[in-house]
Amino acid sequence: MVSEACADRYLPETVQQPVKILVVGALGVGKTTLVGSVSEIRPLRTEETMTEAGAGVDRLAGLPDKNTTTVAMDFGRVTLNDRVVLYLFGAPGQRRFWNMWEGLAEGAVGVLVLVDTRRLEDSFEVLDQLELRADTPFAVAVNHFPDTHPHGEEELRRALDLLPTTPVVDCDARDRTSSLDALIALVEHATEDLAAREAAS
Ligand SMILES: Nc1nc2c(ncn2[C@@H]2O[C@H](COP(=O)(O)OP(=O)(O)OP(=O)(O)O)[C@@H](O)[C@H]2O)c(=O)[nH]1
Ligand SMILES: [Mg+2]
Fold this sequence. Notes:
Belongs to the GPN-loop GTPase family. This protein is of the alpha/beta class and about 200 residues long. Helices cover about 30% and strands about 20% of the residues.
């Protein structure tokens, strides 16, 4: 018998579709926060304390309280409905760990790109890096911080040079419903993308 405390760790027997999602973004955009807020299991985290050695290398403007960083990956799980379960892999944001993205992305159905518009230039490099995986659909989620200057969607699309079909959603990574909405937008986009590819082949 499954104890009450453990019940949410088990999947309904009807689940047929495990879907792997990669969560990427520049340093400190809220990837670990998002995976933690949506995950129905205790998320796996690989946080290490940021030391003085990173000063001048790691751009942390706007994040006065940030003192740890992901050094390998985040992992979490969300059951979307009685058929589909998402496995979330959060990538490290420090540039020197970006070579891990390739391995983490293996088999991913889609990529959620978290963006902090206060440091938009850091996201240019993230999107460049994603272009290396042109066959994996992605969605952009703008994570809002208290001093975030509101950007119009068109302005943001132009700045990030996005295709008209790429979803852009607002989110608060600390909020489960908001983060879930961003993931659902990505899954819907990835599903449409897959159907379009199958129809074209
Ligand atoms: N106000 C606000 N703060 C947030 C939000 N999301 C994350 N934070 C804070 O921003 C900081 C960075 O969040 P993390 O989740 O560690 O960011 P990350 O992208 O995983 O960072 P790295 O792994 O170091 O790249 C933390 O102090 C969070 O509490 C948000 O939506 N709003
Ligand atoms: Mg992190």
